[in-house]
Amino acid sequence: MGILDGQLAATIYAGFRGRLSKGRLLRVGVGESGGLDALGDAKATGQELYGLEGFADDYSDFFRAQAGIPETDVKVCIFGASLPKGIRPLKDDKVALTRAGVETWYQLRRDGVDPAGALWECPGFEIDPPELEPAP
To answer: What is the reported pTM?
Structure first.
């Protein structure tokens, strides 16, 4: 456990709590059966949905050009302490952020977190809303 773990992330999140966009992280399980859907992708076996707080931000033109980031990508920023303990964003997770009553969905290209685990900065791109399983 590092000096920046836990308490620092919680303190940083506490300073922003309630001032961020509300959101959801959707993780879809992939079956091990080898079954494929009509598009040739592995069939999903279930969904997990987690609440979060965060925001989406644009990359600067300079950074985008230097890093080769597609023009359609944004930084999907998720405060680590807003997710349930032990949950972290992963590649291909889908994230919905609501701002001014409008929900926008993004798919994450990869994860990336600061040393304190306070803020996940994940490159992502806007997608159509996924089909959600009905709540049990």
So the answer is: 0.78
